[in-house]
Fold this protein.
Amino acid sequence: MTVRLKINGTVHDLDVEDDAPLLWVIRDEVGLTGTKFGCGIAQCGACTVHVDGNAQRSCVTPVSSVVGAEITTIEGLSANGLTPVQQAWIDHQVPQCGYCQSGMIMAVSALLRTNPQPSDEELANAITNICRCGTYPRIREAVRALAGKV
Amino acid sequence: MVSTRRMVLLGGLGTAGALVVGSSAYVAWPRNTAAIADALAAKPGERFINNWIKIAADDSVTVVVPHCDMGTGIFTALPQMAAEELDADWSKVKVEAAPPDRAFANGALAEGFILSTQGTSADQLPAFLRGAVANTFRTVAGFIDLQTTGGSSAVRFTGVLGMRIAGAAAREMLVKAAAARWGVDPSACTTQSHRVFQAGRSFGYGELVAEAATYSPSSNPPLKPRSRYTLVGKSIPRLDIPRKVDGTTAYGLDVVRPGMLYAAIRISPVFGGTLLSVDAGAVERRRGIKKVVRLDDAVVVVADRFWRARDAVAALDPRWDDGGNGAVTSAQIAARHAAGLKGDDFRKDIGKGDGADALARGRLIEATYTVPYLSHAPMEPMNATAVWKDGALEVWSGTQDGLGARAFCAKIAGLPMDKVTYHLLPMGGGFGRRLPGYFNFLEHAVKTAMALPGLAVKLIYTRDQDMQHDYYRPNVTSHFRGALDGEGRAIAWSNDYTTDDGANGEAHIVYGIANQRIRTVKVATHIPTGPWRSVEASWHGFFIESFVDEMAHAAKTDPLAFRRALLGDKPRHLAALDLAAAKAGWGTPLGEGRGRGIALFESFQTIVAHVVEITIPPGGGVKVDRVVTAVDAGMAVNPDGMKAQIEGAIIFGLSAALNGEITVAKGAVVQANFPDYEVVRLAECPRIEVHLMTSDAPLGGAGEPGVPPLAPAVANAIFAVTGTRIRELPIKNHALTVASR
């Protein structure tokens, strides 16, 4: 059976099961590897993508639940160049190993769309992604610097 | 030439040590290796001028780093050190990972640990190299297969002993080439900003590279004094970061090969267990399933897509032989440690003065401390991609040693090294998990690929397999006794500690206590253990700095003042302690339910002092509000990069202190994923202030030294507020409320 997904503006007709996890379909069927596998149970956020602009953990998202939605991955976050969030990540030298940062940037970008000036507490409550390198202080600084700019 | 001094020092390691210099250390890099290096890693127009530096006719300088990127910033710091001595223009400097080939073996790292552990024996190698040694270099021929990234060693060994010298030697060769063209003496020439100058004329480095490469690199070129540094000591933005914000950095997980298959694994839950049988019929006819592979210790399902393999392997019902360890529990392991400490099988570590006899001369303080097993849990689960075809093996993976990984894969496949190609990829976190000796994922991937000849197979551990088949930070115990004289001064120190390995230098204390006895007893279990960020220091830091705090409180002395009194002959340690205390406002009141703890520890040649501020909320528990840190690593090559490493170490240490615990039931690990192995997230992340100090000491490590003093600083703060002494980690297992003191 075919599942039709719209990812980064491109329509893909994919021969996968209804309950195939969006993460692995994005990675293995569509070939976009910027979205990462971390825990497989929606605990760590490494697999965060946007579904109609909202952050969603793709590792537990069955593809049938996002048919007709606008799905955006890190590769499709910006039409050209870097977004202000990505630039802030460079300015504040946020990433260490970098593995969680696709998910981190997707989660923060979605938050700033609805709350452009989050307090530290609002940020911490909204962004529960795990970074084992411990880049949180710089994420906090980068988001403070972005206040009102996104 | 190899200097006599080096020969003497290397003599301690015997034949194997001597071969390091002869074959792979920078000083004796043979000319024909340049041709090998060119063939392996030079792109059109580039030439290797010595083993770690390529210069192209377009003036670009590429520093080839014999390490792997796991996010610690060494792919910027090491090029900074080379470019500094080369007088390179930073805008023309690029960086690449060295291919996993003996031409790029990290002789400087080998030399570094030999120099820093003079008189050692091969059995007393630093822990982060032990696995590599056991697996690859116990034979003379294998000794050179070293590209290890670990032990906070990149800057202090590869950088200090390798990159600086490579940069300076390359500069010398460029100067010789220019001098020859001008017909002047090289001493008449100077270098600046990527050019050689003499009497108002100049050549760019790119113009000189062909002739420069014909000279032999010097083994001891003159090096700049720190006062002349223009690149080292600057917070240059990291070269790897732009590709880490747009999803384009390809980790091991991201390898794509034509027709690639995916493999999911279930390993014997009991360590050392073996697969007896499995009925594959249950899944073989499912969509996309290609093969069920039976390994000695695991069953693997190979499919056309990962989720199909994952779901199929989960549906199997394999039968295991538990190897006799199927009933082991954490409680039994704890009892073994307790029995070890009560027995008389101690090996003496060190003694000073009258040793433990002096305990009788003062007021006795006694306590026993324990830390649990810990998993590394890097964000990228273990994985590797392999294809076995026509008697050759090709492997893609992120490990902390590309050359060691290649040698390991060759051994597993029963192939000579030249039949194995290994592609070293960036790691989504290492923390010791991906060091040589801990390559179960490579073994599983290679053996799976060998069951499907000609096909590329990517094997990925799901998070539960990753967490339950780690090589854990050991569960160990220390029994302390200390004595205070009538004026509250520490006069005796006794530490009996268990180990799953050998004696640990990290158990030795920096404090000036006249009488000491430190002994160790080995306690064996079937749980595999390995280096975990800061290794032995991760537990001895907690043990020692907590017990010193206990002694201070028993002496009714301020914990800062108590430590200061014992650091009379340790000015660097004292300065770090004082700086952290001053910046944190030590001694100023914090209010109800709040308090501070302090701890100091040196590891990997870097001294770190933390002052931690906590709040005990009215409902109980603990919130870490602020960490103020002083770091003396001699100097920081890239100060912002070092701060990032210390911040990361604080958070890594805090995750372990608050929540980290791997327990054992039925011989297997209980925890499977982040809900039951919780780590610090943004909401628990304290404010962190890192103060870097500069001293004339040799450069110290950056990645690990921030971890050891973190847990004791938190625990000491908890005691200050609650009166509860945390003698067993993690803190989550203790009920904490504000004491009515």
User: Anything to note?
Assistant: Chain A has a mean pLDDT of 97. Chain A has five helices and five strands.
